[in-house]
Design a protein that fits this description.
Blueprint: H1 2-15, H2 19-42, H3 48-52, E1 60-63, H4 65-68, H5 74-86, H6 89-92, E2 96-98, E3 104-107, E4 113-115, H7 124-133, E5 137-143, H8 159-169, E6 173-177, H9 186-199, E7 205-208, E8 226-228, H10 237-246, E9 259-261, H11 274-286, E10 291-293, H12 302-309, H13 311-317, E11 326-331, E12 334-340, E13 346-352, E14 358-363, E15 373-378, E16 383-389, E17 391-396, E18 400-408
Parallel strand pairs: 1-2, 1-10, 2-5, 5-6, 6-7, 7-8, 8-9
Antiparallel strand pairs: 3-4, 11-12, 12-13, 13-18, 14-17, 15-16, 15-18
Length: 413
């Protein structure tokens, strides 16, 4: 039975494009196979095309919550979608425009969820259609409990009608929160909504947001496409490094089709320095985290735009191998993080969380590189910096990273 499950799992993920098999080859195979076998028994109805082939790379988009909270309306969402295209965000890979909490007000006599008629007078379908007309995808928020975190109607007991409503509106992404869930267990609650979404007939990226309390990385693959690993992020340095530390040890649970989610980006919201925002973005990219911007896209500074649209850095996040990076060394406030890439290179972050500039080095053997020389490219500066023997070192400012791509000299393009 176990052998047959492994064989069929390999066939299924190969059909998804081969990237998961590559991921298995670098050491996360046990987690994937055991998870896939369990899920095979629990969700036989799931089809490759409408579930497993979604989110083979970490989703990229924008969410309203970090910057706007409950202050959302259709004009804001339309203008944000327009800004995503105009600013170059869409060209850089961002595609989901997601309304978080507070879009809903009540249920009608048939139990259907109703959008706020004052804030969304044209209706959610018209808004989704407009977002789609720009070449983007549209997302909404709900909650597994009786109420959302802001006290709006939740989906508990209404999973099927809500999923049908979302499908009729053209929803492509659902963030599903965990407030007011007394008496519920996370795994069955999220499985219930996942089944409802599929039964509704529209492929939807399913974002599990229960803050890591039930260790969703152990069960969420095959249920959702991303799962929060911590509580909410805040727009300050202390929050970023606290969340970063909580990702250590979760590496083997992430990969194509299912991603650890350390929460949305705060880049551009004003609470950190440019170096801190670059570090935040760099590390989320190394973590293969979903990249959901949370700032006002209409008024971005040149620095914020540069950070969020840097193609070299985004390529690390979207790399087809789909391996989450890991911390390979920590000495006080000085750290080295590395992420293997599909072309045989590695993305390496020299990270200084301390208070003064420090020199940080890494040797090729630390990275598992057997050749003595490697080519190094600085990803923020977008330039090759040379060929290095034995290792690489750089001066790293306080609360900053130097992010490089290290390519062994024996790799042929």
């Amino acid at each position: 039975m176990a052998k047959e499950c492994r064989r069929r799992t390999a066939m299924r993920v190969f059909a998804a494009g081969g990237v998961i098999l590559a991921w298995m080859a670098v050491g996360a195979g046990t987690a994937l196979v055991s998870s896939s076998c369990r899920d095979k028994e629990m969700r036989r109805h799931v089809k490759l095309n409408d579930f497993d082939a979604l989110a083979l790379k970490p989703p990229m988009g924008w969410n309203s919550w970090n910057r706007f909270g409950c202050a959302v309306d259709e004009q804001l969402v339309r203008s944000m979608a327009e800004a995503m295209v105009r600013s170059g965000m869409a060209a850089a890979g961002y595609e989901y425009v997601v309304i978080d909490d507070c879009w809903q007000t009540a249920r009608d006599a048939e139990g259907n969820i109703v959008a706020d008629p004052e804030r969304f007078p044209s209706g959610i379908k018209a808004l989704a259609d407009y977002v789609h007309s720009l070449g983007l995808k549209f997302g909404l928020y709900s909650c597994a409990g009786d109420k959302t975190c802001e006290g709006r109607p939740g989906s508990r007991g209404f999973e099927e009608p809500d999923a049908r409503r979302y499908a009729a509106w053209g929803v492509d992404y659902l963030k599903y929160d965990w407030c007011h869930t007394e008496g519920l267990q996370a795994e069955p609650a999220y499985r219930k909504m996942r089944a409802a979404l599929e039964a509704a007939g529209r492929p939807v990226v399913f974002s599990i947001c229960e803050w890591g309390r039930s260790k969703p990385w152990l069960w969420a693959r095959g249920v959702g496409h991303l799962w929060r690993t911590t509580g909410d992020i805040k727009d300050n340095w202390e929050s970023v490094v606290k969340i970063l530390d909580l990702q250590v040890g979760l590496e083997d649970y992430a990969g194509p089709g299912g991603w650890n989610d350390p929460d949305m980006l705060e880049v551009g919201n004003g609470g950190m320095t440019a170096d801190e925002y670059r570090a935040h973005f760099s590390l989320w990219c190394l973590l293969a985290a979903p990249l959901m911007a949370g700032n006002d896209l209409r008024t971005m500074s040149r620095e914020t735009t540069f950070i969020l649209t840097n193609s070299d850095v985004i390529a690390v996040n979207q790399d087809a191998l789909g391996v989450q990076g890991r911390r390979i060394r920590k000495e006080g406030g000085l750290e080295v993080w590395a992420k293997p890439l599909a072309d045989g290179a590695l993305a390496v972050a020299l990270f200084n969380r301390g208070q003064v500039k420090e020199r940080i080095s890494v040797s090729w053997p630390e990275l598992g590189v057997e050749t003595s020389t490697c080519f190094v490219r600085d990803l923020w500066r977008k330039r090759d910096v040379g060929r290095f023997l034995s290792g690489f070192a750089a001066d790293v400012p306080s609360h900053a990273v130097v992010l490089v791509k290290v390519k062994p000299s024996n790799i042929i393009d």
